[in-house]
């Protein structure tokens, strides 16, 4: 069910009113987003089954969390670059619904080897980067060569809580690729942490069934696809670079006519 423009505006008015009346100290960028971004407000409403007051509560909690964790200020310059470059998580290609794949190479993560607070910042960085690309993502857990030593329940719960509490209606699918049977018990626990709507989005896939959700051209060769991509961390282009790139395209198009 899609919220109406009236419901979106009602949520916006309630949020702005509470910010002004209660003097809520949110980041100016988030307040500006609430003022102008209908799609963001729509996600809060859908996530909360169109209940405006519940959506409002979630919006306020989200903005409070974003200010506390300085989410708007996260960049390559203040993150652990070694973690970003390790290739344990990255965005690459899209699913059949054209939602970015946020890939977790589970075999590259071992619980306790990295500073958890720094790791969480890197996850938020990728969530923010993905959100600038699309209204939803598909989380892809690549579990090839994964063992119990790679299974970090605290880390997994953190990911789940981000989607439950601060990134509303952000999940398209959760794809679990080639999960070893020894991890079945752990995933039963993980499922219990998820709301019913999210559980329905979990899909267990293998080389034979992945094509139901990801085109072969968008799937890595290791997954049975045709993409030969090898991860190398690339910083996100700045807004100025986006404009520059668009201008180049326009010049090229004009010269080709």
From TrEMBL:
GO CC annotations on file: endomembrane system; endoplasmic reticulum-endosome membrane contact site
Superkingdom assignment: Eukaryota
SMART domains associated with the record: SEC14
Domain CRAL-TRIO: 77-231
InterPro entries the UniProt entry points to: CRAL-TRIO_dom, CRAL-TRIO_dom_sf, CRAL/TRIO_N_dom_sf, ER-organelle_contact
PANTHER family: MOTILE SPERM DOMAIN-CONTAINING PROTEIN 2 (PTHR46384:SF1)
Protein name per its UniProtKB record: CRAL-TRIO domain-containing protein
Species of the source: Nesidiocoris tenuis
